[in-house]
Amino acid sequence: MTRPSTSHARPAPVKLDPDKCAGCGACLNSCPTDVFRFDLESQKAVLAYAWDCSYCFLCIDDCPTSAIEVDSAISSPRRHSLYSNLTESELIYREAAAD
Amino acid sequence: MKTEQAQVLIVGGGFGGVWAALRAAELTTGVVLVEKAYVSRSGASTISGGVTTCPQDGDDLAKWAREFITHGGYMCNQDWTAQLLEGQRDRVRQLADWGVPISRDKDGSIRRFSSRGMIDVRCMQYSPKAAMEELRRQALARGVRILDRVFITDLLTTDGVYPTRGGVCGAFGFDVRSGECIAFSARSTILATGAMSMKGTHQIDNVVCDGAAMAYRAGARLVDLEFGFGGTFSLLMSKFVLGSYNVAIAHGATLINAAGERFMARYDPIRYERSELSRVVAAFAKEVIDGRGPVYVDMRGCDPSYWQDLKTVAQIKGGGVLLSDAVPDPKTWPLAIEPSWGLWNGARSGLMIDLKCRTNLSGLFAAGVAAKSTATGTHASAGVPTAFSMTSGYIAGEAAAEAARNVAQHSVNPHVLRELESNVRAPLARKNAKTADDLHDELTTLERSVIETMQLSKKKLVDLIDRSEELLSEAERCGAADVHDLAKLHEARNIAESIRLVYKSAIDRTESREQFYREDYPETDNEEWFCWHGVTRTDSGMRFDRERIPLESYAVKPERMTPRYRSPIAAIMEGSYDPALY
């Protein structure tokens, strides 16, 4: 088995609630990066390649039972930011700065 | 291995590909559209900001064309410019007739707004996902055979040789779920594979560099690859989603620095945030370099229709999240914002095509942002990539269907197909090797922050070329655990192949021009570089060429062409930018 890459060393942004999944398979068409597969035994969708989620949110609208969530707070380690050293509160605009 | 036959084969199911399929199917049977994801849920067309150029009856399109040509630095095929605007008028009418949701004024007419960098040219906002869903329905209704989840890895050549001395006669790939290889023999092949990009930056991770790489390997001529960098603005606080930057600023959003200053006033006191994207990005970078960051988007002045549109038209990307009552609410509080700057070619580079979307290889056509749009030059408005995709698709579909009538079906040498199959599947047999994800991680480190990526130099480019060549050779040694990984590995290989070409093109261009900035050649040099810059694979390696732009034969000409001048980005970065000069 090949070793996990650094991209995989993080929680996956997409989550699928098996209790809510009705097994319609819509998400298997939705996903541009093909993260879903259909599990014949449970007759439900499963997240086979969750780390490949690229935050397009298409599956969220397509799922009729709202079984899928994408947490955009879990950002891609491949993204470059000039502000990566700033905390969220430091990113809030302060009128005081204008004084 | 399965074999399929088509009159017209279209690779890629975004705007370019589906419009091509629709038009081809009006003229011939045997139209096959292959897509590595699912047509209507793939590519930039589906999850874009939904902005497109909106010419309508009664508009003076010559005036619009003049604006594209002058703002594009005259680096246009002006016949293409006219063809784009006339074609787009029909595409917009068709989208409206189909009932695709388009943002409208109270009287029901399409609401139009002036787009980034433009004054006369008007854009509209539509629902991109609904548009793609309608296109899929229309394609199926016209008898187009759609094959979803098929990844094309290579073009088939008439002589079975790469680069070919003949032409293109189909394509080869595999089903991304079953792994079965499929060879498509076609009289005409249209490459409509979308933008050149990397994974991780644009939230559209299946848009990579497949088209450019397979076209280059087959011997097709690509142009202006060094203009393939672009940017998108995104909010820093990821729980808020902006929708489209272009739409937001058209409705009253502004950019301010940490001191609350609307800094674009210093760079472009006429168009402000609607200036050329590269200048806005450079100004952003300069503010941060000079210690005036972070930069914020101030949406307090957005008119109510903007928030309404986010809800009703931009159905994707969490408009609801943006409009939550969370603190700080973007309606009452500026939010930190930054642009990405990286590979995102948006029709500024790609396969060179003529007025009928023909490439230099017989049998091969290109459409959408896989092709270079010569309709627009170094700068185009925000709606142009979608407009060019739709209209070049339509034209390519028509030309490919007509050409298919006059050529025989080519039978591909089974030996060539077996070799392709063996090469495509080889990584599945490599155990304990580096993975596709490792390779994608490393590829994305070639691109760094906007400040780094925007400022190129020979020293930087030599290093980037070395690293991209190393990654390209590593791609040949990587393994794939399953078919899903195999697709990602071929994507990584295509990115490595393409980014190497981009850097090689960049080091060959010894000037700066609009968004392309070299610290070691900060001037725009019209004597040497007023041209389309081509690259082709030959038996003896990479060959560059400069194709003269025949300005004398076009209607719109500059009063005088300044031979050399400081490029705008160079001036911004050096702190000497004078808006009156540009």
In round numbers, the mean pLDDT of chain A is 84
Query: What is the strand arrangement across the widest sheet of chain A?
Result: 1-4
Strand percent estimate of chain B:
15-25%
Largest interface: A-B, 44 and 66 residues
Q: Helix-strand pattern of chain A, N to C?
A: EHEEHE
What overall geometry of chain B do the principal axes of the alpha carbons give?
A: globular
What is the CATH architecture term of the domain at 12-71 in chain A?
A: 2-Layer Sandwich
* Strand elements of chain A, count: 4
What count of helical segments of chain A does DSSP give? 2
Average pLDDT number of chain B: 92
Q: How many angstroms separate the termini of chain B?
A: 57 Å
What kind of oligomer do you see?
Answer: heterodimer
The CATH topology of the domain at 12-71 in chain A turns out to be Alpha-Beta Plaits
User: How would you characterize the largest beta sheet of chain B?
Assistant: 7 strands, mixed
List unreliable stretches of 5+ residues of chain B.
316-323
How much β-strand is present in the residues of chain A?
5-15%
Note the overall shape of chain A.
elongated
What's the number of extended β-strand segments of chain B? 22
Distance between the termini of chain A: 58 Å
Q: How much helical structure, as a percent, in the residues of chain A?
A: 10-25%
Quick overview:
Chain A is an alpha+beta fold.
Q: Can you characterise this structure?
A:
The complex is a heterodimer of chains A (99) and B (582). Chain A has 99 residues and is of the alpha+beta class. Chain A has a domain of 60 residues: Alpha-Beta Plaits. In chain A, the strands form 2 sheets. Chain A has a two-stranded antiparallel sheet. Chain A has a two-stranded antiparallel ribbon with strand order 2-3. By secondary structure, chain B is of the alpha+beta class. In chain B, helix 3 packs across helix 4, helix 6 packs across helix 17 and helix 16 packs antiparallel against helix 17. The radius of gyration of chain B is 23 Å and the shape is globular. In chain B, 60% of the residues are buried.
